[in-house]
C-alpha cells in the first residue's frame, strides 16, 4: 500500500463562501463513498477568508487511475456542478483550474 499526502489550495468567490460551506456541511453520501473507493482517506478542508486548503492521504497503487474513476462518476460530476462554480479560477498548474497541489516541505510522525 502506497501512502501519499496531498495539500491543495484554492480560492473561493467571496459571494460563494457560505454556499460552499453549506454544501460541505452535508456532503452527498455517494460522493463520500466514491472518495473512499478511490483510496482517499483523512480528507479535510479548511478555510481562511476566501482561501481553502484541503488535505488528504492517498493509499492506493495508481493515483491517476483512481482520479479518472472519480472524474467519470456521474454523481461526483453532479456534485462538482455545485462546488466548482464557487471557485475563482486558480490555475497555478495544468491539473486543475480550481485547486493547486502544494509541495510538502515538512512532516513529523512523532
- Which range best describes the helical content: under 10%, 10-25%, 25-40%, 40-55%, 55-70% or over 70%? 25-40%
Q: Calculate the mean pLDDT score and round it.
A: 90
Number of strands: 4
Q: Please give the largest β-sheet.
A: 4 strands, antiparallel
This entry's quaternary arrangement is single chain
Can you count the helices?
A: 4
Strand order of the largest sheet: 2-3-1-4
Shape: globular
Structural class comes to alpha+beta
Strand content: 15-25%
| Radius of gyration over C-alpha positions, nearest whole angstrom | 14 Å
- Straight-line distance between termini: 21 Å
Q: Summarize the helix and strand pattern as letters.
A: EHHEEHHE
Query: Are there runs of 5+ residues with pLDDT below 50, and where?
Result: none
Brief characterization of the structure:
This protein has four helices and four strands. By secondary structure, the protein is α+β, with helices and mostly antiparallel strands.
Describe this structure in words.
By secondary structure, the chain is of the alpha+beta class. 35% of the residues lie in helices and 25% in strands. The protein contains four helices and four strands. The chain has helices spanning 17-25, 29-37, 63-72, 74-83; strands at 4-11, 40-48, 51-58, 100-101. It has a four-stranded antiparallel β-sheet with strand order 2-3-1-4.
Amino acid at each position: 500500500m502506497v501512502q501519499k499526502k496531498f495539500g491543495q489550495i484554492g480560492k473561493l468567490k467571496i459571494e460563494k463562501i457560505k454556499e460552499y460551506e453549506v454544501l460541505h456541511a452535508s456532503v452527498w453520501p455517494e460522493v463520500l463513498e466514491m472518495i473512499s473507493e478511490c483510496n482517499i482517506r483523512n480528507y479535510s478542508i479548511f478555510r481562511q477568508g476566501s482561501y481553502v486548503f484541503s488535505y488528504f492521504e492517498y493509499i492506493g497503487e495508481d493515483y491517476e487511475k483512481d482520479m479518472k474513476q472519480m472524474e467519470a462518476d456521474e454523481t461526483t460530476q453532479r456534485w462538482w456542478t455545485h462546488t466548482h462554480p464557487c471557485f475563482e479560477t486558480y490555475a497555478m498548474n495544468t491539473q486543475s483550474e480550481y485547486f493547486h497541489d502544494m509541495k510538502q516541505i515538512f512532516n513529523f510522525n512523532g
